[in-house]
Specification:
Keywords: DNA-binding, Transcription, Transcription regulation. This is Putative HTH-type transcriptional regulator YdfH. Residues 10-78 form the HTH gntR-type domain. With 237 residues, the chain is mostly helical. It has two domains: 9-75, Orthogonal Bundle (Arc Repressor Mutant, subunit A), CATH 1.10.10.10; 82-231, GntR ligand-binding domain-like (Four Helix Bundle (Hemerythrin (Met), subunit A)). The chain has eleven helices and two strands. It has a two-stranded antiparallel ribbon. Helix 5 (95-119) crosses helix 7 (145-162), helix 5 packs antiparallel against helix 10 (215-225) and helix 6 packs antiparallel against helix 9 (193-211). The protein is elongated and about 70 Å long.
C-alpha cells in the first residue's frame, strides 16, 4: 500500500504566490487595478482559503498586492528601493548577510564611479570639489566626527548621483545609512596622521579623476577608499 504524502502548507502557499505573481506581471496590470478576492483565488486555483490567504500575504509583503476591505485585492507596482528599505533591517540581523551587503555596496560604488566619470556635469564636479575642501577642514581638526560622517555621506552620495541613475543613488543612501550603524567607524577618535591624510587625499584624487574623465584612476581610488568594507567585521545593530 502506497502512502500519499501531502505537500507542506507553506510550499503550496509559495507555489501559489509565484503563480499569482507571474499572472499579474504577464497581464500587465496598471497600478491600482483591482485583481480578485481571496475567495475567488481559492476557488479558481482549487486551494483552501488558508493557502490563498498565505499566498496573498506573501505578495502583500512584497508590495505587489494591497488588500481593501469589501473590495478585494489591488495590484501595486512597488518602488524597489522602498522594498529594499523594508528588507534591510532583517538582513542586518545576520553577520553573513551584512558581509554580503558590504560586498554589494563595494561593487555598487566602484561600478558607479565609472558612470560618474562619463556623466558628471561641470556643476556637479564643482560641488564635489567643494565637499572635498569642507571634508579636509573638518578632518584636519580631527574633531566633530558627526559632521565628518555627514560630509562623507554627501560626497559619496553626489558621486552616485553623477551616475545618472536615481535607483543607484537611492540604493547607496540606504546602504550607507545601514553601514553607519552596522560597521565600526574606520577611524578612532583621533586618526593617525598618515591615515587621515590618505583619506583626505583620496577625496581630492576622486575629484581630479572624475574631472579628467579618467575611469581607471577613479575606479582604482574608489577601490582603495572602500576596501574597509571587505576587511571590517560587521556588528549586529
Amino acid at each position: 500500500m502506497t502512502l500519499i504524502t501531502k505537500e507542506p502548507q507553506n510550499s503550496l502557499a509559495l507555489e501559489l504566490s509565484e503563480r499569482i505573481r507571474h499572472r499579474i506581471q504577464s497581464a500587465e496590470f496598471n497600478d491600482g487595478d483591482f485583481f480578485l478576492t481571496e475567495a475567488e483565488l481559492a476557488e479558481e486555483y482549487n486551494v483552501s482559503r488558508r493557502i490563498a490567504r498565505e499566498a496573498v500575504n506573501r505578495l502583500c509583503a512584497l508590495g505587489l498586492l494591497e488588500g481593501r476591505k469589501r473590495k478585494g485585492l489591488i495590484v501595486r507596482h512597488p518602488d524597489p528601493v522602498e522594498v529594499w528599505a523594508n528588507c534591510l533591517p532583517s538582513l542586518a540581523r545576520s553577520q553573513e548577510k551584512l558581509a554580503d551587503l558590504a560586498q554589494f555596496r563595494y561593487a555598487l560604488e566602484v561600478g558607479a564611479v565609472e558612470m560618474a566619470v562619463k556623466n558628471a556635469s561641470e556643476e556637479q564636479i564643482e560641488q564635489l570639489a567643494t565637499l572635498a575642501e569642507e571634508f579636509k577642514l573638518i578632518a584636519s581638526k580631527k574633531k566633530n566626527r558627526k559632521q565628518r560622517t555627514e560630509l562623507e555621506r554627501q560626497f559619496h552620495g553626489l558621486i552616485l548621483e553623477m551616475s545618472g541613475s536615481s535607483f543607484i543613488a537611492d540604493m547607496q543612501k540606504l546602504l550607507a545609512t545601514l553601514f553607519e550603524t552596522s560597521y565600526p567607524p574606520r577611524e578612532s577618535p583621533v586618526l593617525e596622521d598618515d591615515v587621515n591624510d590618505r583619506i583626505i587625499w583620496q577625496h581630492f584624487e576622486l575629484v581630479s579623476a572624475i574631472q579628467d574623465r579618467d575611469v581607471e584612476r577613479a575606479r582604482s581610488v574608489m577601490r582603495s577608499h572602500l576596501k574597509y568594507l571587505l576587511m571590517s567585521k560587521p556588528d549586529i545593530p
